[in-house]
C-alpha cells in the first residue's frame, strides 16, 4: 500500500509534497493544486469556526481564506492526470490538479464564496448537489446561469444552511464532464462540533470509467459498459486503507456519481445509515445493516463502532465492480481443458485471454498486458493475491492505532487459534446425490460427453 499522508496547514502556509500553490489574480484567493493521489489528512481548521475535519480517501480538502467573515475558496476546473493505481494513469478532467476535486469543508451558517475558474476547452458550471441556496447559485447552465466560458471565472456565493454531506459536479455537458471525472465532495459541519461526533470521518465518491486497455482517455458516451469502478478515482490496490483504533466510532460517507447503483458492504461489523444527501437520519429510523445500496446521485453516511480487530474487507458487492479493466469480455472456460487452445487463439487474437478451466483465479493469471492498464485483480495480501480490484479497500482495526493516526499499520497478525486452518485427515468419501434433480459430476472426468456453453458476455448491460 501507499504510505504517505502529507499535511498542509491551511491557505496561508502550505507545506508538504504534492501541494503546489498557484497565485492567481490579486483579487482571487490562491488556487491550490494537488499533485498526489494519496490520502492527505487535513489539519484542524486554521481559522473560522472549529470543526472536526473529514479525511478524504485518496484525496484532500481545499484550503480557504477568510475575507471579512466570508470563507473564500478557489476551484479551478482543468484537465488532470490521475493515477488509478500504480501502472495506470488516465487523462481526466477535474479540479485543482485532481479528480475528484478537493473536498470543501465549511460550517453550518458559514457565508461561502467560491471562485470557479474554467481552464477546460469547453464551458462548464458547478452544481452544489443537495444544498439549500438561492436558485441563481444552483449551477445549472442554461437554466439558472450562463455557462462559465473557457478562461473565465464565475463566483458562487451562499450561506451553508444545512449541516450534512453534499457533492458538487458540473451541470453543463454533464455526460462528457462527469464521465471525465468532474466531481467533488462537500461537507457542511454542524455548528456544535459535538453534534453526532465521531472519532474518524472518511469520505469518498464512487466513480466509473470506460478506459480501453492501453489508452488514456475515458470514453464519454458509455452508459453501461464501464470497465473501471473506483473509490475517488482509485482502484484497488491503489486505494488507501481506512484505519481505526479499536472501540472508536467511525463514519464513512460515500456519494454515487456513476450510472448504476452500488451495494457497499463492510465485513465484520454492522453499521447504521446515519445520513443521506438529504440530511441526518433520525435515530428511531435507523436499523442495522452490513450492506447499503447507494443509488445514482445518492449519498450515504454509515456509522459503526470499530469493535473487532482485523483487516476487514470493504467493497461494492457487485463482483464486476471489484474487477479492473481487463476481463470483462472473457469467455467462461470452466470445465474445458485448454492445454494449447489458448496459445493457438492468441496467435490470431493477440489480446485473447481465457478464464482458467478450474475457475477464475485471474489474480494469478500472468498475461502480457498492454501498456497503461491494470490486471483485473492485482493486490497482494499477506496470504497471496487478493482476487479483487476496483471498488475494494480494507478497514484496518487495531488496538495500538493512536487516536488521529491515519498511517497504515500493515497487515493484521492473527492471534493463535483465530485463523482458518487446513484439515489434515484422510479425504472423505464423496457423497453423491442421485435422486431426481441432483447429480454430481463424476470426479476426475472433466468435460467429455458433458455439454457446456461458452458464453461471451457482451459487457455490463443490465447491471
Ligand atoms: Cu458497484
TrEMBL record:
Residues 425-463 are annotated as: Disordered. It holds the Pfam family Cu-oxidase_3. Residues 84-192, 222-330 form the Plastocyanin-like domain. Coiled coil: none annotated. It is found in: Periplasm. Keywords: Capsid protein, Cell cycle, Cell division, Copper, Metal-binding, Oxidoreductase, Virion. The keyword Hydrolase does not apply. GO terms for cellular component: periplasmic space. The keyword Metal-binding applies. It comes from the Bacteria. CDD domains: CuRO_1_2dMco_1, CuRO_D2_2dMcoN_like. One of its GO terms (biological process) is cell division. GO terms for molecular function: copper ion binding; oxidoreductase activity. This is Multicopper oxidase with three cupredoxin domains (Includes cell division protein FtsP and spore coat protein CotA).
Amino acid at each position: 500500500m501507499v504510505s504517505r499522508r502529507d499535511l498542509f496547514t491551511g491557505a496561508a502556509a502550505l507545506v508538504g509534497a504534492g501541494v503546489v500553490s498557484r497565485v492567481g489574480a490579486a483579487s482571487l484567493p490562491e488556487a491550490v493544486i494537488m499533485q498526489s493521489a494519496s490520502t492527505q489528512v487535513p489539519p484542524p481548521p486554521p481559522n473560522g469556526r472549529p470543526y472536526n475535519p473529514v479525511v478524504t480517501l485518496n484525496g484532500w480538502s481545499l484550503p480557504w481564506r477568510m475575507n471579512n467573515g466570508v470563507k473564500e475558496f478557489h476551484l479551478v476546473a482543468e484537465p488532470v492526470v490521475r493515477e488509478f493505481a500504480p501502472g495506470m494513469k488516465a487523462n481526466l478532467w477535474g479540479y485543482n490538479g485532481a479528480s475528484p476535486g478537493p473536498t470543501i469543508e465549511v460550517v453550518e451558517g458559514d457565508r461561502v464564496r467560491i471562485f470557479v475558474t474554467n481552464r477546460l476547452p469547453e464551458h462548464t458550471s458547478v452544481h452544489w448537489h443537495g444544498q439549500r441556496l438561492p436558485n441563481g447559485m444552483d449551477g445549472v447552465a442554461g437554466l439558472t446561469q450562463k455557462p462559465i466560458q473557457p478562461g473565465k471565472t464565475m463566483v458562487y456565493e451562499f450561506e451553508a444552511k444545512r449541516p450534512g454531506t453534499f457533492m458538487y459536479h458540473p451541470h453543463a455537458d454533464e455526460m462528457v464532464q462527469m464521465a471525465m471525472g468532474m466531481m467533488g465532495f462537500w461537507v457542511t459541519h454542524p455548528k456544535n462540533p459535538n453534534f453526532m461526533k465521531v472519532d474518524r470521518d472518511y469520505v469518498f465518491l464512487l466513480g466509473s470509467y470506460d478506459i480501453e486497455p492501453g489508452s488514456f482517455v475515458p470514453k464519454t458516451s458509455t452508459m453501461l459498459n464501464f470497465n473501471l469502478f473506483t473509490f475517488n478515482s482509485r482502484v484497488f490496490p491503489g486505494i488507501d486503507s481506512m484505519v481505526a483504533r479499536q472501540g472508536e466510532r467511525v463514519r464513512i460517507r460515500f456519494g454515487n456519481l456513476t450510472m448504476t447503483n452500488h451495494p457497499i458492504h463492510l465485513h465484520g461489523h454492522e453499521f447504521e445509515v446515519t445520513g443521506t444527501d438529504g440530511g441526518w437520519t433520525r435515530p428511531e429510523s435507523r436499523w442495522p445493516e452490513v450492506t447499503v445500496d447507494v443509488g445514482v446521485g445518492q449519498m450515504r453516511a454509515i456509522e459503526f463502532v470499530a469493535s473487532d480487530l482485523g483487516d476487514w474487507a470493504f467493497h461494492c458487492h457487485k463482483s464486476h465492480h471489484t474487477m479492473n479493466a481487463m476481463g470483462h469480455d472473457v469467455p467462461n472456460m470452466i470445465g474445458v481443458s485448454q492445454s494449447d487452445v489458448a496459445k493457438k487463439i492468441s496467435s490470431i487474437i493477440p489480446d485473447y485471454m481465457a478464464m482458467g478451466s478450474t475457475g477464475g483465479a485471474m489474480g494469478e493469471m500472468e498475461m502480457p498486458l498492454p501498456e497503461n492498464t491494470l490486471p483485473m485483480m492485482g493486490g497482494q495480501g499477506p496470504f497471496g493475491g487478493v482476487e479483487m480490484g476496483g471498488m475494494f479497500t480494507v478497514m484496518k482495526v487495531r488496538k495500538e492505532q493512536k487516536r488521529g493516526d491515519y498511517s497504515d499499520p500493515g497487515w493484521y497478525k492473527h492471534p493463535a487459534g483465530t485463523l482458518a486452518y487446513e484439515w489434515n485427515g484422510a479425504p472423505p468419501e464423496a457423497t453423491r446425490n442421485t435422486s431426481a434433480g441432483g447429480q454430481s459430476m463424476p470426479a476426475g472426468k472433466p468435460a467429455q460427453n458433458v455439454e457446456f456453453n461458452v458464453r461471451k458476455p457482451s459487457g455490463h448491460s443490465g447491471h
